[in-house]
Amino acid sequence: NAGVMQNPRHLVRRRGQEARLRCSPMKGHSHVYWYRQLPEEGLKFMVYLQKENIIDESGMPKERFSAEFPKEGPSILRIQQVVRGDSAAYFCASSLGQRGTEETQYFGPGTRLLVL
Amino acid sequence: KNEVEQSPQNLTAQEGEFITINCSYSVGISALHWLQQHPGGGIVSLFMLSSGKKKHGRLIATINIQEKHSSLHITASHPRDSAVYICAVFPRKGAQKLVFGQGTRLTINP
Q: Does the N terminus or the C terminus of chain A have fewer Cβ atoms within 10 A?
């Protein structure tokens, strides 16, 4: 049973380019979470999505960042016009999706974004 | 002050020692995760608990909701236990987003 998959594992972008990070949740999971880990810092929540819905985006920067989880295909975290401060590890996690209960979240291997 | 505080930040021990990592939180929570982040960066969920104690192999996690404190113990530690251990909380019932501690970097020397 494949775990959470993220690609690419490493991504290098120049300032001003776009970065697209993909996350495929575990089979049967309908909830996806994106977290960011800045260098030498702890993990921080960014966004929580269900299929075709953004449930909580309180951790997303107001500009340049967007996320989606379409009916078919992986969840995408998109960063437009990247800046050096966006360099970080971006982790995706997924859970089953039982409303109203706290669930174990399973993490992907992360995408390490480096902005030159 | 962070909502989730871990101690110690760094811990070095010899193989075989009993390890304790502590997590205190200032918010009311409904459940707590202990996570392990390997040197390669991958994150593994070790436990999710909301009361009492859980055990898996050499790992034991306890939580005291009234005291807002959790501990992760490793018995008979081994160099392969070397990793960063992260405490993360669900800040309220039904909340799905996690709030993380800064992590404890554990190094076990042979």
A: N
